[in-house]
């Protein structure tokens, strides 16, 4: 009955307590809240990350190339502006999603730290890590995919900016697309994965050593008796 | 007489036994914790729902300001977001968030509330893929585990408390030798075991129902006494099932250790293995199409649709002759063309989602069929249903949102097709979503099946227990 | 307060104490007829006939495995006879076990009690189960003290009791029940000589109140001392029945050993 109690605490209660504790220590915003924040920040920018203005972009380009009118510019203002907007949005996204991901990871740390009381938590994070299904590797992949998308956008906006003039209807050729490299994802190395999971490894090590010590002392006591 | 005597003696034994007191104390803490958790969730959901409602108001106000500004000669802040266009007003900028308030007993059973969306942004862009979106922002690690709510404690942990208190209800008396003196008195084994279990049942149910009612009290759930009664009935029936199972196993006359092993085995099988098995089987037999499939279908449909917009518009108008008169069906009516494309995409999506829905329905049917295997599944279903956080209420919400989305479309589409311009005057008349909750009668009828099954199971095991206990005549 | 005083108070019997000689005319309280209990091929009790009347103390003597305890368990209805009948005050144990047990008090060889409760709480519980829930705490305390439990021990946990003290609580439970028949299974094993002697006096008091006593024992001395009749059992059979009034201690021992040698 005592063993069963430990099993239940370890297997059923602890993981759920870890969820609550991690959410309490590192609260995540509700989806509505998050969406509203994004909407607001994309709409008006935040200090340090200003929303680009087409007028300003145009003025800057005119000054940079030392010409008087948009038609004299060697680049398409729309293309430059689109890329600037893109970069602005990226920074807002990075800011919000980065914070969210960091919170998820810190929540994960709470789960791992709680494995001091319930080794299951360490085993679970570790096996998820080795199976490539932990939050960090998900983020790794998502970041790689996002990088690819941003690169694609950069290429397209650059193509538009360099190969057309403002006001033109530009249609990219098949060659432009042919230059885009296919998405290639390299999964992180084992070392990288384990580095994220040092806490779990340490906890499991502690449990192992602790179990050996307890067993050893019990055996000695039994021998004496 | 025997009952009262045994109850008093059990009370004394309980007070004298620190270990039992400790177990009860731990469970009382778990119950309180689960309840606090549930209440925290309700507050969170209420906050979210309030924020969403506020968002609706704010959006309409912003649109109103913008429309008035434009009417007074201002320029729209962005050519893509000109609210005079019905496809903008009815689209994302003017979207209406349809919300589902927490169920009356959500504090007791969060259920799938953290998994299933309880609000949707409804606009003319709402289509089947909108219903596949995730609800709350949540760490996937946390979703994987599930929530520590009262329903979890009742379904998973309560049986363990019951078994810990009852696994040796008869065998313990035999092993400590007190059964000999007990049975030399004019009492039946059934009577004594029944009374001892009654004592434990009073404790356990007092705890479970007490905390439940406390939760109801805190969150104002007494507004639906029917649901509270259903909840209590489900808790009681499930708890009694485990008590009768313990009685039956004790009636087999084996040692306490054997009883403990068998009962824990039963718990593992009925509470952990079978429910997981049923869910895995359902997933294997009726796999849901992946989201990627959905997205690909949407892309292909969009590409096709963009290439043949005018054709689509013509076809759309053929399907909707009532609109044909007011539509300027030429290339210049870009909104109308776009709408025709959207409509075509939506229809394609419906084909994909119908597969999704079918598979999901098949999964549910399978789970519903095999829930009879496990009292834990039956109890879980009854509890969530009573709390209003089960599938049924969410399905109802989704179907009402679908209707509302349809309503929203019919409000805007004719204007889109006719190329009309909107003014601030339409704003007060915009459709607004209100969830119509299910009638208590529907809930009762639905919950009656698992509840009566649980009751029947209880009677069956109880009868078995009585028959076994009747055969026990001596302390040997 | 003496044991006699305690026993006189529950006024269940209207008649004055019955003299021993008249007892033989009464219907037996404990009665076994052609009683057989088989465990597979083994006959634990092999055709036992026994009649014990009010005011009789019947001592079953015999080695381990002779069937003494089995006989007592058959009277209690703990086990079912393979054939034959057991009656308590005319109630067939097989048919109305509860009625039979209402009239029986039983002290097992090892009195096992709830260790976390006091002797008094144990007595209170078992007396109440036996239908004596109206006895007050004072009365129950008196009964415990009268059977020889030290007064301070009454409210201590049974876990701290010696075997003899637990045995006394068992006897107190039997006394409090005020039953028509008393079944004793090796009641004096583990008691010191003084307690054993007190126990004999107690039996005598109960006997004089008209209780029918069936006592299984190894103790020839105690059997001769307390018993009105002695039955020697071997291999599930009564091999001899004697009236203790007719023989001395030495005779009983000789007869017993003779039968064991066969």
Description of the molecule:
The complex is a heterotrimer of chains A (225), B (476) and C (262). Helix content of chain A is 75%, strand content 0%. Chain A has 225 residues and is mainly alpha-helical. Chain A has one domain. In chain A, α5 crosses α9. Chain B is 71% helix and 2% strand. Chain B is built from 17 helices and two strands. Chain B has a two-stranded antiparallel ribbon with strand order 1-2. In chain B, α12 packs across α14. The longest helix of chain B has 54 residues. Chain B starts with a helix and ends in a 5-residue tail after the last helix. Chain C contains ten helices and ten strands. In chain C, strands 6-7-8-3-9-10 form a six-stranded mixed beta sheet, with helices on both faces. At the A-B interface, α1, α2 and α4 of A face α2, α4 and α5 of B.
The main sheet of chain A comes to:
none
SSE order of chain A, one letter for each helix or strand: HHHHHHHHH
Q: What is the count of helical runs of chain B? A: 17
Shape of chain A: elongated
Q: Give the beta-strand count of chain A.
A: 0
Task: Tell me about the largest β-sheet of chain B.
Answer: 2 strands, antiparallel
Radius of gyration of chain B: 30 Å
Low-confidence stretches of chain A: none
Provide the domain count of chain A.
Answer: 1
Quaternary structure state of the chains depicted: heterotrimer
Distance between the termini of chain B: 26 Å
Strand fraction of chain A equals: under 5%
Q: Could you report the average pLDDT of chain B, rounded to the nearest whole number?
A: 85
Strand content of chain B: under 5%
Note the run of SSEs of chain B as H and E. Answer: HHHEEHHHHHHHHHHHHHH
Measured as a percent range, the helix fraction of chain B is: over 70%
**Overall radius of gyration of chain A:** 27 Å
The number of strands of chain B is 2
Most extensive chain contact? A-B, 31 and 32 residues
How would you classify the helix and strand content of chain A by structural class? mainly alpha
- Total number of helices of chain A: 9
């Amino acid at each position: 009955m005592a063993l069963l109690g430990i099993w239940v605490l370890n297997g059923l209660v602890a993981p759920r307590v870890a969820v609550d504790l991690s959410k309490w220590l590192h609260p995540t915003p509700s989806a509505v809240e998050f969406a509203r924040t994004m909407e607001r920040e994309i709409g008006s920018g935040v200090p340090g990350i200003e929303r680009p203005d087409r007028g300003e972009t145009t003025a800057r380009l005119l000054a940079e190339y030392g010409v008087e009118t948009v038609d004299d510019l060697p680049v398409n203002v729309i293309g430059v502006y689109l890329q600037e907007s893109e970069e602005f949005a990226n920074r807002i996204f990075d800011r919000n999603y980065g914070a969210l991901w960091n919170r998820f990871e810190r929540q994960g740390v709470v789960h791992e730290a709680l494995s001091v009381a319930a080794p299951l938590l360490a085993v679970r994070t570790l096996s998820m890590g080795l199976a490539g299904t932990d939050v960090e590797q998900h983020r790794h992949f998502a970041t790689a995919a996002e990088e690819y998308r941003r690169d694609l956008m950069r290429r397209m906006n650059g193509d538009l900016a360099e190969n057309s003039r403002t006001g033109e209807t530009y249609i990219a050729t098949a060659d432009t697309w042919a230059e885009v490299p296919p998405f290639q994802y390299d999964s992180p190395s084992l070392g990288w994965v384990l580095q994220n999971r040092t806490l779990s490894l340490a906890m499991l090590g502690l449990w192992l050593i602790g179990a050996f010590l307890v067993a050893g002392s019990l055996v000695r006591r039994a021998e004496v008796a | 007489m025997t009952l009262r005597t045994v109850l008093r003696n059990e009370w004394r034994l309980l007070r004298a036994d620190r270990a039992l007191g400790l177990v009860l104390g731990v469970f009382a803490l778990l119950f309180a914790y689960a309840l606090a958790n549930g209440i925290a969730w309700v507050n969170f959901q209420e906050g979210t729902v309030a924020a969403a409602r506020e968002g609706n108001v704010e959006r309409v106000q912003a649109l109103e300001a913008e429309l008035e500004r434009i009417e007074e000669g201002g320029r729209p802040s962005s050519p893509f977001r000109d609210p005079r266009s019905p496809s903008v007003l009815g689209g994302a900028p003017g979207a209406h968030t349809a919300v589902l308030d927490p169920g009356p007993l959500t504090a007791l059973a969060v259920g799938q509330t953290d998994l299933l969306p309880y609000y949707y942004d409804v606009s003319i862009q709402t289509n089947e893929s909108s219903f596949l979106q995730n609800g709350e922002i949540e760490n996937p690690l946390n979703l994987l585990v599930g929530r520590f709510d009262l329903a979890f404690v009742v379904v998973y942990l309560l049986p363990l408390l019951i078994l810990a208190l009852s696994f040796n209800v008869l065998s313990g008396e035999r092993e400590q030798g007190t059964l000999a003196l007990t049975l030399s008195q004019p009492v039946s084994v059934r009577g004594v075991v029944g009374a001892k279990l009654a004592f434990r049942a009073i404790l356990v149910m007092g705890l479970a129902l007490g905390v439940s009612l406390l939760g109801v009290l805190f969150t104002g759930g007494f507004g639906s006494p029917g649901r509270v009664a259903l909840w209590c009935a489900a808790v009681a029936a499930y708890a009694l099932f485990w008590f009768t199972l313990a009685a039956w196993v004790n009636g087999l006359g084996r040692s306490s250790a054997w009883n403990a092993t068998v009962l824990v085995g039963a718990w593992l099988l009925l509470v952990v293995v079978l429910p997981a098995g049923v869910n895995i089987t359902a997933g294997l037999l009726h796999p849901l199409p992946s989201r990627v499939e959905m997205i690909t279908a949407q892309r292909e449909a969009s590409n096709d649709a963009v290439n043949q917009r005018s054709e689509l518009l013509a076809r759309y108008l053929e399907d909707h002759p009532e609109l044909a008169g007011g539509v300027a069906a030429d290339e210049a009516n870009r909104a109308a063309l776009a709408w025709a494309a959207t409509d075509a995409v939506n229809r394609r999506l419906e084909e994909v989602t119908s597969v999704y829905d079918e598979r999901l329905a098949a999964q549910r049917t399978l789970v519903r069929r095999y829930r009879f295997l496990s009292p834990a599944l039956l109890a879980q279903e009854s509890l969530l249903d009573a709390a209003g956080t089960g599938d049924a209420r969410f399905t109802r919400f989704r179907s009402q949102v679908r209707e509302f989305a349809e309503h929203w479309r019919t409000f805007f589409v004719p204007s889109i097709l006719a190329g009309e311009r909107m003014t601030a005057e339409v704003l007060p008349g915009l459709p607004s979503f209100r969830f119509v909750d299910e009638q208590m009668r529907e809930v009762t009828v639905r919950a009656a099946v698992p509840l009566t099954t649980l009751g029947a199971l209880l009677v069956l095991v109880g009868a078995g227990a009585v028959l076994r206990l009747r055969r026990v005549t001596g302390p040997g | 307060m003496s044991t006699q005083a305690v026993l006189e108070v529950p006024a269940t019997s209207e008649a004055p104490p019955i003299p021993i000689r008249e007892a033989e005319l009464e219907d037996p309280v404990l009665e076994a007829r052609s009683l057989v209990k088989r465990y597979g091929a083994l006959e634990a009790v092999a055709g036992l006939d026994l009649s014990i009347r009010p005011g009789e103390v019947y001592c079953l003597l015999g080695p381990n495995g002779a069937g003494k305890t089995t006989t007592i368990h058959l009277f209690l209805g703990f086990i079912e006879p393979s054939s034959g009948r057991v009656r308590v005050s005319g109630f067939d144990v097989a048919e109305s076990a509860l009625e039979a047990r209402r009239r029986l008090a039983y002290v097992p060889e090892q009195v096992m009690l709830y260790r976390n409760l006091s002797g008094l709480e144990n007595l209170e519980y078992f007396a109440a189960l036996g239908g004596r829930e109206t006895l007050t705490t004072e009365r129950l305390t008196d009964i415990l003290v009268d059977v020889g439990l030290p007064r301070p021990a009454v409210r201590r946990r049974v876990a701290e009791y010696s075997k003899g003290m637990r045995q006394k609580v068992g006897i107190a439970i039997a006394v409090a029940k005020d039953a028509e028949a008393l079944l004793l299974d090796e009641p004096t094993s583990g008691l010191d000589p003084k307690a054993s002697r007190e126990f004999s006096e107690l039996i005598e008091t109960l006997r004089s109140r008209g209780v029918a006593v069936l006592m299984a024992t190894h103790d020839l001395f105690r059997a001769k001392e307390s018993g009105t009749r002695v039955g020697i059992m071997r291999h599930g059979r009564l091999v001899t029945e004697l009236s203790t009034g007719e023989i001395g201690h030495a005779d009983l021992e000789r007869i017993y050993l003779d039968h064991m040698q066969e």
